[in-house]
Structures are given as C-alpha cells and as structure tokens.
User: Fold these one by one.
Assistant:
Number 1:
Amino acid sequence: MAIHKDLLGGPPPTQLPDDPEPRELLANGTPPAEVAAKYPASSLAWAQLADGAFENGRVVESYAYARTGYHRGLDSLRRNGWKGHGPVPWEHEPNRGFLRALHALGRAAQAIGEQEEYERCTTFLRDSSPLAADTLG
C-alpha cells in the first residue's frame, strides 16, 4: 500500500499554473519589456528584465525589476495555496519565473549593499527549492 502523505507534516509543494504565452514569447525572442507590458503578472518576464539590467551594470534597475517579479510571484503563489513557506519546486517549469526573480532580487540586493535582504532572499530560495539555488548559483 502506498502512502501519499508527508509524514513530517510539511506543506505540499506549490505548483503554479502554467501560463505558456509569456514563456513562448520570450523563448521566441520577444523583448522582455514587451512581454512584461503585455503580461505584467509574468515573473519570468520581470526576471529576464532583471537579468538583462544586471548584466549591463544597471544594478538598481535590476533590483526594481526583480522586486516586481518577486512580488507578482508571491501573489500567484498565495492564490494557489501557498501559506508563506514550503517547497516551490524548480522542476515545475511555471515556478521558475518566481524562483529566478527571487534569485535576481538577492543578487541585486547584495550588489547594492543590502546584506540582510541578500541573506533573506538566499535563504528563501534555498528553502523553496535547493535545486533552484544550485542551478541559479
């Protein structure tokens, strides 16, 4: 007999619903700013904006983009049953936008000297998905 309950009492993993349109637009080369304007709830678009700004030395802009993607992701997580803690698996592709935005927020926070924010984001990312933390660096 298979047991399908977490015997440690932890919350089940949160899996965000798939929203393929923004992901497909980004994969096909549509600029992230266009995708974010059309799909402002897409954490993936904001994360890509944050990455581009960071790579071009615009750290404060990267921080702002990442914070937007992070908060849009938190909104979506909460709408989908997340209670403020528990796994948000990297393996579930729709979760990756939020996880990438969280990583980008931590990276930008560190770059502007916000050590507490950096540590909070780093811990939150690792607690949400060890694989995401390892994959994103």
Number 2:
Amino acid sequence: MSIQPRPALLALSIAAASLAGCAKDTGEYPSLERRPIERAGAIGAPTPPPPPAPLSPELPARLDALAAQARAAHARFVDQLPAARRRIREGSRAPIGSDAWGDAQVALASLESARSQTMLPLADLDLLLTERAAQELARDVMRIVATRDMVASLVAEEDAALDALGPPRA
C-alpha cells in the first residue's frame, strides 16, 4: 500500500514554507519614538487667507443691466396680465375653435412669451455665476447671487400668475 500525498496538504506546506521567508527579522524596524518635528509642536501661527479679490470692475454695470432687463420684461408681463385674464376667462367658456377660444390661446401665449423674456436675464445670471464661481471670485458671486435671487422672484411671481389662470385647454 503506497501513501499518496493529498493535494490540499501539499499546497498548505508550500504556502507555509514561502511565508517563512517573509518573517525574517533584520532588526531594521523604524523607531516608534517621537521625532524632533513632532516634539516641536506648531511651527508658527497659521497664515491668514489672502484677502478676497476686488469686485470685477465691469460686474456692477452688467448686473444692473440684467436686472433692468428683467424688470422691464416683468413690467410688460404685468401690463398684459389683466387683459389676458379677461380674454382667458371669456375663452374658457367658449367652444373650442371659436374666436373667443382663439383669443384666449393667443393671450396665454403672449403671457408665456413675456415670461420667457424675464427668463433670459436669469439664464445670463446663471452663466455668469458659474463662470465667477469657477474662478473663485467670492465677492462677484455674492453680488451675482443677490441679483439672481431678485430676478428669480420676478419669474416665480409670473409663474404663480400663469398657474392661477388654470390649465390650458386644447
């Protein structure tokens, strides 16, 4: 009867022999004592951050122009709103395809067009905000955000007015 070595036992023996070479003690381990730099503590007071960059010279004029553009578009929207409400109310009672219904659809489209004119400066402000944030110009970003918030509130007011008119009929 011959004894056959088992494959698992053979593999385990080879692995143990190869790992024994990794456990060789050379006595060259790093010391766990504190190094001089660790004993010294803080080298000095932290340097303060640099002062924020000055506001870009062209930015205030550009923001004023975008705000004025948004206010003008919003004023046109507000001016159109009473007549549009009346035409839409009359058209909602009229049969689809009638002149009153068509007038209501035109009035609604005109209001939505006026709203889109208010959205244009908002899109420009978003682009400007992205550019200045990428350049890490904090003062510019704060100014842009303030103007953007004002224009966004105008758009929200217009959205609320359009929502109050009710869903459009096809």
Number 3:
Amino acid sequence: MKSPRPDVRYPATVVEDDGTRVVVRAPWAGAAVRDFGFVRFEAGDVFTEYFWRDRWYAVKEVRAADGTLKGWYCDVTRPARVTDEDGGTLVVADLDLDLWRSADGRLVLRLDEDEFAASGLAERDPNAAERAAAALDELEELARHGGFPGLTA
C-alpha cells in the first residue's frame, strides 16, 4: 500500500515464511520498462523480495531474465503483515524512502528523501518517521559494508 496512490497488487510465489520473515518471488509487475537511470526494470526481471514482520524495510534482489544480478532495491516500510484475504495477502505500507545497491556494490543511492519530507509523516506520526529514517540509515550501512547476505540467506 502506498498512500495516497491506489494499492499496488501483484501475484507472487511464497518461497519461505518463518513467522518473522516472508520471502516471495515475483516477475516485474510493471506494465512497461521503468528506467531509473541507474537501473532498468523490465519484462522478464525477477524479484526475490524479503519482508519482515518486525523490521521497517524490505529488501528486493533484482535479476534480469537471464539470471544476471542487477542489484537490490530496498523500500522503507512499516512492518509487513499477512492477511487471509484472497488466500493470503502480504500487506506492506511503503513510507517513500528507498535505497539502491548495484550488483557490484559500487553504487549505493538513497532515494526519494524529498517525497518522504513532503509526505507529512513527520508531523502526522513522528515515531514512524523516526523509525523510517533509522531504517534507511541501517540499510545504507549494510549496503556500504558487505551488502545484504545476513538478511537474505
């Protein structure tokens, strides 16, 4: 869920759910190519997505159709929850902050900090805003110092 936009929904295959971390795999769900300048998401790309019920972020490993690792796209979110809706729905509230780490680890980018500031979350829910900022800092620290193997293993 990303307010005020409508929910983004897409089918995914559950790879693992240990009660705390949920791992799903899904093809790129966008209708068209999305070129960020530093990476392109396109038909055939496969996302292995790691969500936590007790953390304020999600880590998404992105691979091209041929299996080549493109990198990791990380979303700062409220902790994930799973509902019984439609046989099981993973629900995640996106908080605008994102991070990209290229496959070789040379490029680490904090993204959408302007959207986060403009969202008004700091005024509406200062605690959530603090948790979101701390989550982005944690992701950046991990990305710059070895990546995400501790989270994605």
